[in-house]
Every structure is written in structure tokens, then in C-alpha cells.
Amino acid sequence: MFASLSDRLTATFKNLRGKGRLTESDVNATIRDIRLALLDADVALPVVKRFTGSVRERALGAEVSQALNPAQQVVKIVQEELVGILGGQTRTIRFAKQPPTVIMLAGLQGSGKTTFAGKLGKWLKDQGHTPLLVAADLQRPNAVTQLEVVGERAGIPVFAPERGNMGGHDAVLDSGEGTRSFGDPVSVSRMGIEQARAKQYDVVIVDTAGRLAVDANLMQQAGDIRAAIAPDEVLFVLDAMIGQAAVETAQAFHEGVAFTGVVLSKLDGDARGGAALSVAELTGEPIMFASTGEKVTDFEVFHPDRMASRILDMGDVLTLIEQAEKAFDKRQADEMARKFLAEEDFTFEDFLQQMNAIKKMGSLKSMLKMMPGMQGMRDQLDAFDDREFDRVEAMVRSMTPFERTHPKQINGSRRARIAKGSGVTVTEVNQLLERFGQAQKMMKSMARGGGGGIPGMPGIPGAGKRGKQQPQRKKSKSGNPAKRAAEERAAAEKAASGRAASAASAFGAPGADADGAADADPLAGFDASNLPKGFEKFLGGR
């Protein structure tokens, strides 16, 4: 969504590279480019003025003039100010001291409230909670049915005593108002909380009705529901694609419902979306979650610092690590580490396990976009076809169990059968087997530690040497045969222990010190001061 803003800011910072000193005219030109980029991205004018004013003041101060690399210091200032307008600190749900915690969803019709209810429920369930969805949107046709479908996908129960508007003509006309009545959403919301207490659900998510535009009836109904259920959190679901109207809508809901947090939906769209970045600054309420697709797993906690890094093309490595931790099974990782240490062949069965883990992390395209500096390769990434994984998986699943564990035994006739079974050509099967063989050799070379290396790679131990490299052992100088044999045996055990520790550390296993002692700190002396904020938790609290 923020591709255009990211491109403009990245191009602006390129003009500063290589300058050992920044003049006032350089700073003014940079601020002008940043202002135009923000305005072009639909960021609200008051926010743009405050943002550029703060950046200009800091850029003209000693913070930049005394820096060794002024250009990098300006980027750092822009990132910090961008984090500020996005909310500053990450905030998630504040749970009630006495369950159930009541979460009310509000927003315009079509903003994605119902879909988000299922996503939030799935996320809470994965956190160990027992959520209940309450269908209090009785106005939009088939809204109750949609919530039930979303709840079924997420594995979350739905409380729906009223069917609401089924899209037919069986509604009763209210006297004097000219509106149709499909049930009382306030009563349904109260009953939902009572049901949660009775069935011991610890979180209640109330999905309320919306309108195509802000009006008095919408605010009255939302206000009545809030007064009746006294929610612990009121989340305003905002469509990030509605442009400048996002600011007006957010302010209207903040005055009418007093929401406590914002959810940005449809962040996977191609609209400019800058107005959504203005909401936290103008309302004073934090952006708490981001919704990026139709699947119940297309959901993430909103981290202002990580979003700022994405916009500035610095990547989002922390989110990538968290996704990997959820996707990769510890037992399978331990088995891979054991195979790695024993220098056993990496098989197609192992390959299938790794592929399934990557699929759990989501789209490979979206993962690559989280890597630093990938914005410049956006066209190549957009052209990448995730279905290539499906074709490779089809080839592997067309193999017999014997062939998956003995790929070298796959001869010409077997290759033809695999190609026919997976709907590809024999050439594609040959290419897969060739790449797989190279991967096996690389893993074996890594497992040998310092004695191996990757053949043909300059600057890497073992480069240009063929054949298995044997570690050189230090010969004993003792004239006593028994003592000499003991020293040589100790040296061999020390070398083997060092290789094992090196290989195990590649899989995150505890390291070993120079004497082979377990539990040595593999990060001793490592300076983590230059890593992204929050990364230290992955380094044992450094």
C-alpha cells in the first residue's frame, strides 16, 4: 500500500549519499521532497506540517552537523519521527481483571469488521484465550451468516440468537420512523456477555452494524451498545483505502463512540493509504492491528517502528523471525540438526517438511518484501509466481517413498513417470534433481565445519579444493608412546567437539567453547547496539 511513499522517500535519501556535510539548502530541498511525498500519499496536511517541521528543526541542529555520516543521521531522524506519527509504542489488548474481556468493533459498512472479528478471535485463540463472537450486526443483509462462516473458518464459536436481515421482505416496519427492525442489537450484545460468563469464555468480540457513511442513527446505535456492555476495548476498523475521508471518519467515530484503538484493514491494497497514517496523530489513539487479506491468518499486531522501517525500505526482519518461530516445528528442527551433524543426506521428505513450514509463514512474495532493500526489486517480486512451489511439490509427491529418500536412483524411466504424473516436462524434473543434488553437497560441506567449505567460492574455507578435506591434527612431541597417543586422542576429540558446536549453532542449539564445554555463550563479545530495536530478546536479553 505504501509503495509510492516508500519509493519517493528512498529516492530523496539517495540524493544525500556521499555528502560529508549538509548545508541548509540541502536540508530544505530534502524537506521539500519529503513534504511532497507525504502529500502525494494522502497524509493529512496538519500531520505533514508537524512532521516536516520537526524533521527540519532536528536536521539543522547539532544532531546532524556533528554526525560522521549526515545522510544516515537524516534517515534516522525521519524514521524516528515516522514512528511518532504512527503511534510511537506498540499496544495490544488490555484484558479485564475479571473475565470476560469485552471488545466492541465499530466502523463503516464494508470496512472489514466482520472479517476482522474472525481474525482477532483466531489470534486470541492462538494466544491461549477462549473467545466468543457475538453477532450484533442485525441490519446488513446476511451479516449474521457471514460472521458464522468466518467463525467456522477460524474455529471460534458464534453467539447469534437473532438472524437479522436475511435479505428478504419479511421485516416489520417500525412505527413513525420508516426503518425496518430486525432485532435489538443492544439486547443481543448483553445476552452475548451473559452467555460468555455462563460458558466461561474469557473474551467477547461484539460485531456491530455500520453504515455507508457517518450518520446520527449509526452513532446512536453504537453509543447505546457501548453504554449497555461497557467494553474494555472499542476498536475502530478503518478501511485504509478510502483516502482523505479516513481522517474525517475517524474523528467522527472518536467523538461519537470514543474508541480506544484503531485497526487498519485492506493494507494489501494498492491505494496510497497515507491518510490512514494520520489517524493516530489526529485522534491520539494507537493503531493496534493491521488486516491484510481475506484469510483468517492475514493479520498482525501493528508495530509503529516496524511499519516505519518497511516504508523506508529497511525491511521488517523481526516480524519475519516471529513468523518463522510459529511455522517451524521444534521436533522437526531438532531432527534436521541431528541429520546435519551426522552428515546424513537431505532427502525429498525433508524438503516437503521445509516447504510446508514456509507455506505456513504465508506468501513467499510477502516474506521477501520484508527483507531490507527489496523495494527496488518490486517489479521482479510482483512477477514472481508463488505457484512455482506448487509445481515443485507436485513433482516431489509424484515420486515413490523410495525415490524421495534415494534421489540418485531416479533413472530415465522414473523421471518420465514423475513428469507425467505431475504435469511437467522431463527437463523440469531434471532441473529439480540437479538443484537438489547441489543443495545436498552444500549441506554436507557446511556440516564438515572448517575442514570443508563450498568448492569454487572465493574467500570461503575450502574454495577451489576438491575432495573431502581432512582436519590437520597437531602432532605430539612427547617421546612416550602412551602419552603421545593420549594427547593425539584428546586433540581429535577437541576438533570433533568444535565441529559439532559449530554445526549445532547453525540450528540455534547451545554452543560450545574452545575446550568443548557445553553451554558456552556463542555471543560473548558481540555488540548488539546496532541491531533493530527489540531484537535483543532473540539474543537472550542482551
Automatic annotation (TrEMBL):
| Keyword Secreted included in the entry's annotation | no
Q: Which domain of life is it from?
A: Bacteria
What is the first-listed, main subcellular location in coarse terms? cytoplasm
Question: Which EC class, in a word?
Answer: hydrolase
- Gene3D superfamilies tied to this protein: P-loop containing nucleotide triphosphate hydrolases (3.40.50.300), Signal recognition particle SRP54, nucleotide-binding domain (1.20.120.140), Signal recognition particle, SRP54 subunit, M-domain (1.10.260.30)
Which locations, inside or outside the cell, does it occupy? Cytoplasm
Residues the record lists as binding GTP: 107-114, 207-211, 265-268
**Which Pfam families does this UniProt record tie to the protein?**
SRP54, SRP54_N, SRP_SPB
Bias (Low complexity): 493-528
- What reactions does this protein catalyze? GTP + H2O = GDP + phosphate + H(+)
Which PROSITE patterns does this one have?
A: SRP54 (PS00300)
UniProt xrefs under InterPro entries = AAA+_ATPase (IPR003593), P-loop_NTPase (IPR027417), Signal_recog_part_SRP54_M_sf (IPR036891), Signal_recog_particl_SRP54_hlx (IPR013822), Signal_recog_particle_SRP54_M (IPR004125), SRP (IPR004780), SRP54 (IPR022941), SRP54_GTPase_dom (IPR000897)
Outline the extent of the SRP54-type proteins GTP-binding domain.
286-299
Locate the compositionally biased regions of type Basic residues. 465-477
Region (Disordered) residue ranges read 443-542
EC number assigned by the record:
3.6.5.4
Q: What SMART domains does the record tag this protein with?
A: AAA, SRP54, SRP54_N
Where is composition skewed (Gly residues) in this entry?
A: 448-464
The coiled-coil regions, if any, are none
Q: Which UniProt keywords apply?
A: Cytoplasm, GTP-binding, Hydrolase, Nucleotide-binding, Ribonucleoprotein, RNA-binding, Signal recognition particle
Q: Which PANTHER family match?
A: SIGNAL RECOGNITION PARTICLE 54K PROTEIN SRP54 (PTHR11564), SIGNAL RECOGNITION PARTICLE SUBUNIT SRP54 (PTHR11564:SF5)
Subunit structure comment from the entry:
Part of the signal recognition particle protein translocation system, which is composed of SRP and FtsY.
Write out the similarity annotation.
Belongs to the GTP-binding SRP family. SRP54 subfamily.
Q: What is known of its domains?
A: Composed of three domains: the N-terminal N domain, which is responsible for interactions with the ribosome, the central G domain, which binds GTP, and the C-terminal M domain, which binds the RNA and the signal sequence of the RNC.
Task: Please state what the protein is called.
Answer: Signal recognition particle protein
Q: Which organism is it from?
A: Terrabacter carboxydivorans
Name of the gene encoding the protein in the UniProt record: ffh
